[in-house]
Amino acid sequence: MTRPSIDAATLINAWQASGVLPPDAHAAVVEAVLASAAEERPPLYLKILSAVGTLLATLFFLAFLFVADIISLKSGSSLLGWGLAFLAAGIGLSLVLPRIAEGIGRSVLAQTAFTAMALGKVMSVFGVVLLAGTDTPWVPTAAIAAVTIATYPVSASSLDRVLSPYAVAASALAEILGRSTFNTDPSLLLAAFYGMATAVAGLLILVHRVPLALRPIGIAALAAMGTIVCILASGHDAGLWANRHPLDPRPIETILTLSLIGTLAWVAGGVGRLAEPPLAAAAAGIVLLGLAGAPGVSFALLVLIVGHALHDVPLRVVGVLALPVFLVLWYYGRDLSFLEKSATLVGSGLLLLGGQFVIARAGWDREETP
Fold first, then answer.
1. How far apart are CA 123 and CA 127, in angstroms?
2. Which pLDDT does position 41 carry in this prediction?
3. At how many degrees (to 10) do helices 277-291 and 250-268 cross?
4. Could you tell me which residue, 337 or 240, shows the higher pLDDT?
5. Most buried by CB count within 10 Å: which residue of 211, 291, 303, 353?
6. Reported confidence tier of residue 262, pLDDT bands at 50, 70, 90
7. Which residues contact 51 (CB under 8 A, 6 or more apart)?
8. Which residues, 6+ apart, have CB-to-CB distance to 143 below 8 Å?
9. Which residues have CB under 8 Å from 29's CB, separation 6+?
10. pLDDT recorded at residue 370
11. Is a pLDDT exceeding 80 seen at residue 36?
12. Are 188 and 245 a contacting pair, CB within 8 Å?
């Protein structure tokens, strides 16, 4: 059965009746709810279009500066100086932005601020890299982290707040996999990095008391997890192209399996709920999936469960689209003949149909309202 919806007034009254909301805080909560409802939130496709426009503006303006010989690509100090100037301009415009009334003027100012900050970030990072030397390890990661920390509090773009932390994670991942200084197997270091990303994503996405302003960092950490899983799902020789050492996926698969079971427990309402038959069966299936060496499928299910639990449509869409892709990659990467792969595919389908029959027969697919 479908659970009944609840409006804001009923929710506030329920909070007051249970003692969660003090009587003197009623007016402040009502004002906050009304302000939130009146706030204009552009749809996702407009945010993506805005990001594309900012990217094009940044690239064209950079090309103009370089073609006109206003900035030299060989001078790290010049790049850094111009980058800091653009950063200061972008931060200043972002601070002024909340005082501007809604309208075309504010939209133009917002785009200008985002473009200036993007220009400043790119130029500052390249300037620092040139000054420190292109072969100096971890300098790009440190530079990207510095400009991200400087602009994150004032950036009004949620997409920018996701992409900038993800750029830090991607740069760190490139250091782990691509630097020649790592002459040994980077699997353990990569597993530690994946575990850190998992902890950050779990803390900032699943914990409701964390400020919403930090949630984009959690999304970026989740995207970093997905990037690592994509590398592992590329085949048995994953990582060989970067570091001349094939990666050992088992540590990351273990972390992913445990995190998926933990997410299932969080959605169910506690670890104790995993002892119930349907959830125990789901946990057992997750363990078998981990033993099967299918990190991509496990990650797609993780994103799908989190998106469903948080009513986050973009996460659900990503999970739904990623699941068949990782299934294809898993079957393609098996060292089996076409006949054996066909038999495996048919057997998996029969197993899923059998599971669906058991779930429907036991009534586990029906939700009862109290």
1. 6
2. 60
3. 170
4. 337
5. 303
6. very high
7. 157, 159, 160, 163
8. 124, 125, 128, 129
9. 12, 15, 21
10. 45
11. no
12. no
Which pTM does this prediction carry?
Answer: 0.80
- For residue 37, give the amino acid letter: A
Secondary element (H or E) of residue 5? none
- Structure tokens given for 237: 């020789």
Spatial CA neighbour of 82 closest among 95, 99, 68, 96: 68
In angstroms, the CA 237 to CA 231 distance is 10
Dihedral, CA atoms, 302, 304, 307, 313, nearest 10 degrees? 150
Task: Indicate the Cα dihedral angle 264, 266, 272, 277, nearest 10°.
Answer: -30
What's the pLDDT score for residue 1? Answer: 36
* Residue 124 Cα to chain centre, angstroms: 25
Contact 25, 89 (CB under 8 A): no
Q: Tokens for 180?
A: 């020649």
Token pair of 163 as six digits: 């992409």
What does the H/E/C string look like for 82-98? Answer: HHHHHHHHHHHHHHHHH
Q: What is the pLDDT of residues 54-101, one digit of tens each?
A: 778 778 888 888 888 787 778 888 889 989 999 999 888 888 887 777
User: Which residue type is seen at 281?
Assistant: A
Residue type, 136: T
What is the reported pLDDT for 208? 83
